[in-house]
């Protein structure tokens, strides 16, 4: 008989009973921390962060769900729907240290809000507090005792400064507290066993009691122990390190060896492994109230497929179990990040096609050949590049990289407006001492284009300088000690991740509206400089007045001027601009000893900026959304799957290590298309050199009916941008946006 059988309904009832009480009152724990700070006014930020873990180990309540064999839920005062993108600080003691710096929080908020109100940027965080990966493999292989041993060995270096010793000692203390927390899960399971009578739940509690007493203190030896250690690592980081850890794990690659060893030893059946994987995948949906408005989604994902550090293909029975679980239970989360390459097995693509065709809309496809090469070109080791993961929406990072990929979204269209209307934007940027060159006065398009690029480069340099200053406060207000403990390099360097302790330390600004900019530049090239249909002065007036009295001109711009992704000449021009833009977006040094890297990732910013961005030279009116990712403008006609895939063949995304997202909205009736058709789309995307692709497979008629009768369509999941959500929970405006882009 199968030792463990996943009962989704029972588990979700147990989870709701706990999570509906969140956020809990943790004022006593905060009081203890405040008192300790008063007693030790000279304590370092490292020491204060270690106090948070120690306080949680002694006083925070640990939670176990008798129908779920995994442990990691500790009540630190977090909200139920919490991605812990903790800046500004959220509820819970994980953010306690940040709350000690209200002046900095206010300073950054005032600065970023100023530019948000002008539609230049949207940057609620001064560094990426949401999209990280704690390398659970180090915990699996060494255990926390092993990590402590490496820290003790590093401390024998007599040349270490007092500050570096302080960091290492604080990181050691965090590991000690985590071992204590794990033991408390064991004790809680023993307590629950005293009153539990159900045979299956007793087996679960017995298993937790035995395992939590050992793992993750000691290395994981079995498939089950590995799953427990993976979950424990991520959840402890989420609850206590003051950051959001979007990536759960590259699940099939990591679990494969444990699964094979257990199967050979007769410790595990395929049926039980399937049940364990299904429960593991369900834990995100079990925690969250998915009926609530989720403006950023759950921020959780798993990675499957791709390759290992040697380049060998990863596709195994764990990969299949993951895909089967999504199809069987129709999870809305975690997001499924599937890595593919030219040598990916056809069976893998077919199963991905089945998930896409089922209309689950949780799938993103990552093209290894493009992404690995893009990161290798940044000077990273090939073996490291092969171990990339992706978290949050589609934010790429390597296993030994601390990246800040999605914390500030820059409006490329508004930056172009600085070149067209410098008299206005110079006033807005006066406090920065920054001015735009008047590109609109140039007599040739080449002169205009070079000046636009110079303005982009100078404006981006200004933002780099500001974010380097703000970002340097990370180590002060929220050093991340368990995150650092999962990075071997942090122990070797004796540096926290916030200081540059990782092997790779990258930043990027998420660039919004690139398709709109390409079409706008090409329109200026065509109608002003080549056809001389309008003067630059007349075009500027038309844009300022939202094309009042210039509808004929607007229609010409919309329908007669070639468009990016649809027409060859505009797409060729787009290729040139993308190459030049990557030079502007990347190469600058950051405050952690790394560099900024180019990325074409937009989240929902293409919609955020629409009301603060005036009309554009491509014929777009104010109030209309900007283009998404590397997609064409929203107004471009005759765009279909073939058109998008054909355009990808003309472009080169190896200049964008942070990823370049293509949104594939397919307006069909769910379940009516063969998986082989979607598999063919995925294969063509790979062969044509794409970077990242999001699927959104919906029936427009069904969505329209869901607006009228939401109760009859409560299970429809749509891809909003980089995240998935139940359609009926979205605002009417967001629903209309999803329907509108699918009707093109």
Write a structural description:
The protein is α/β, with parallel strands linked by helices. Helix content is 49%, strand content 9%. It is built from 29 helices and 18 strands. The longest helix is centred in the N-terminal third of the chain and has 32 residues, at 162-193. The chain starts with 7 loop residues before the first helix and ends with a helix. The mean pLDDT is 93.
Point out poorly predicted stretches. Answer: none
Distance between the termini: 52 Å
List the total number of helices.
Answer: 29
Q: Classify the helix fraction into a percent range.
A: 40-55%
Look at the structure and give the mean pLDDT: 93
Shape descriptor? globular
Radius of gyration: 26 Å
The major pleated sheet works out as: 6 strands, mixed
Oligomeric form: single chain
